[in-house]
Amino acid sequence: MDVIHPEIAKAKTLPSNYYTDESLYNSLLGKFFTTWNFVGHVSMLEHSTTIPVSIGNNPMMLTKDESGEFHCLSNVCTHRGMILSEVSTNRRTIKCPYHGRTFNLCGKLKYMPEFDQAKNFPSSSDDLPSSKVKNWQGLLFANLENDNSFESFISVVEDRMNFLNIEDFQFDSKLDKTHHLDTNWMLYVDNFLEGFHIPFVHTELNSVLDYSSYETQLFDNGVLQIGFAKEGEAKFDLPESHVDYGKSIAAYYWWLFPNLMLNFYPWGLSINLVNPNGCGKTIVQYHGLVVDQTKVGLGAGGDIDLVELQDQEIVEACFRGMKSSLYDRGRYSPKMEMGVHHFHRILTG
Asked: What is the CATH number of domain 36-147?
């Protein structure tokens, strides 16, 4: 029997224990964070050679070797499991702070003190495990499984957003932000995937969006929400060849399974990365790329920091509510919660 009924008009939402049960949390994490994961932008490695990142519950390290090639390596020493680096560095090697084991930027073991008498050492298992990295328009993605097609993963975004020269967007480190939330990561995704709450939670955002025209479109591995601008508000200048030509679009809100949000505004791109940090803890990282500085602060993308704080209050309160013995599950709005239903179907499929 399906946990989530395939017909949204008949379906009940995800049971509350999916958000609060530690064993379910670990099971879902191990199952779904093996797809393509956003790990950074090429600009982050202009002045660094290593950057610590996370994929699910795996500490990883994004590196750039001397040839300019990007790698995503395990950030865990193959000797005793020590975290190799907690901060970005500009070193030409990776050295474990515990016992001095040293690797090159491709993850190959270079040196290990006091191991002269060890037999059958070193072997390939002493190198750092690595994942495939793809560079899409300056955005870097890594895949721990190495067997899923990146083209199929990104194609829906690429087809819809091809009127933009995303590779020319300028990464702005001043827009980097990290938020620590007391909630389950799936509740943050749930909240992102519906515009239903906008009139009730985001008064300022609602004043510039035409809520009555809000659209949600579903794809195999993602969801697109389209926010329409009210008269006089900032909107995209779309070419005649575009499928949305003639529409007053204020924002394209993309979600790619499991934890990436790509929010396109006339001023540029805001990236949200939702990192699980335990069953009841979530780290949300924000990055920004700007294409038109004159439009920053306008329209739907005008005060994303305020929107973020408003969303945080909601998802933290929802997590507290999920622990109640008097709540199990609810129902979906067939009109406004298609994206949430789609997410839950993927999770439980």
From this structure: 2.102.10.10
